[in-house]
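As promised in the previous annual report, we have extended the structural survey to additional targets. Below is the entry for ARSI Arylsulfatase.
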Amino acid sequence: MAVYALTGFSLVSLLSFGYLSWDWMKPSLVADVATDPMEKSVPPTFTRPPHIIFILTDDQGYHDVGYHGSDIQTPTLDRLAAEGVKLENYYIQPICTPSRSQLITGRYQIHTGLQHSIIRPRQPNCLPLDQVTLPQKLQEAGYSTHMVGKWHLGFYKKECLPTRRGFDTFLGSLTGNVDYYTYDNCDGPDVCGYDLHEGEDVAWDQSGKYSTFLYAQRVSKILASHSPKEPIFLYVAFQAVHTPLQSPKEYIYRYRSMGNVARRKYAAMVTCMDEAVKNITWALKKYGYYDNSVIVFSTDNGGQTFSGGSNWPLRGRKGTYWEGGVRGIGFVHSPLIKRKRRTSWALVHITDWYPTLVSLAKGNLSNVQGLDGYDVWPAISEGKESPRTEILHNIDPLYNHAKYGSLEDGFGIWNTAVQASIRVGEWKLLTGDPGYSDWIPPQTLTNFPGSWWNLERLTDGLRKSVWLFNITADPYERYDLSEQRPDVVRTLLMRLVHYNRTAIPVRYPAENPRAHPDFNGGAWGPWASEDDGEEWEGGRESLKSRNKKKKKCKICKLRSFFRKLNTRLMSNRI
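The corresponding structure token record, generated without further manual editing, is:
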């Protein structure tokens, strides 16, 4: 029997604070919602393809939006969601590259070779060039396509760049995280470079501008210069609220009463992003796009709890296959929705946006084979049943195998040491090492990184390699039913076997020294010629070699952490 230890709080006290139960339509959370007197009682019909605005935020936790009961102010997101359709059974991937690749291709990462980790800056790797992307399909349908923000789908060749994968214009970063003002990114000691690009050129002149503001301003500029009579697709992939935790001071001041410094900075970044979304929405109305627009809002993965994020009351965090890593914030706002102002529990996955948006655009999907996504617009707009009944969260054969997993534990059909997760109907199965498994309440009471004494920790289960949950009845994953329901375990393992037979080899090559920014004028950018082959070799060996190279970097980070901690302690004494 599992033993739970809650230090700092009791579960009863958390319930009394309202952390485990909130009214998502509580008036105080959406009090600023006012009915527009000009709003039509019947939504307009699709006389022409709608403008599509897809907004993706980075590392925003499930709890970190006002309508989920957060202490962070997000009035714009609250209003847009309340007036549209909230997706409360919506799933994403646990880290950056996988979510973005599945959005852009409509395919599970086992079908693109990106099932392991992320694409690192020095890897000769990118979204497979044979994949027809979402913006390419929209271009075929007559759309003007624009991307603003974080790419993180590889750039070692020019063919990998956003402007070669379906976007008419691009302003943003190619790597996974950059400084919000200087746009510098370091991929290890002394491997640093500038990463802000305009099209296929380095945007040196934009340095010093806070990225959240810069990206929102670029969206407004695009809308001002385009005709609302012509369909447009805007993919706005905010860098916010990924680390580093940086925000204009005036936003931090609003949260000065928060005791946890990381949470305070993080909250400021979320509110700043919320205002950027407000400005984008205002621009849509000002320039005549709004009445024929569909706005989709999505997070890319769970929040990083040790960097200010919160997924409470869900289990786990970014990088894990617990609900806290894969259940996302999502909603759709549009005058074209037939049944507005409601919460949808239809099962939706990030791969579904590809066929859904192409269908909305009246595009052609007949020549696209092997999609894993479904057209969920009838479920969103009309409240119909979702065509999706299961989700493959992932199968990662390269992730560290669980020590206690075996083929025997998998009924002889699946090695439970392999990291994998799947949901079928109301059941969710995890095998291998799913990742950090604690429940962490919002961290507001201490300055210490991570708020270790404010979490509920699972103290057994370390010798397990199989978990089963009825995710509908137990969304917080507190009651493992794998021993009580071996029949369900076996059924879901068979589904994993089925999917694994369709998987292509993992693309995770060794890092290439040619990628160093010093060889590219001090900026990150393509380094391989068009004649270079796709260097996918490496597999597990490349993973081992990368870990060896990173040891020094980890030690540096540890030393830096203790230096900063000592500085804080000394300043508190003074």
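DSSP finds twelve helices and 20 strands in the chain. The mean pLDDT is 86. These points will be discussed at the next consortium meeting with the crystallography subgroup.
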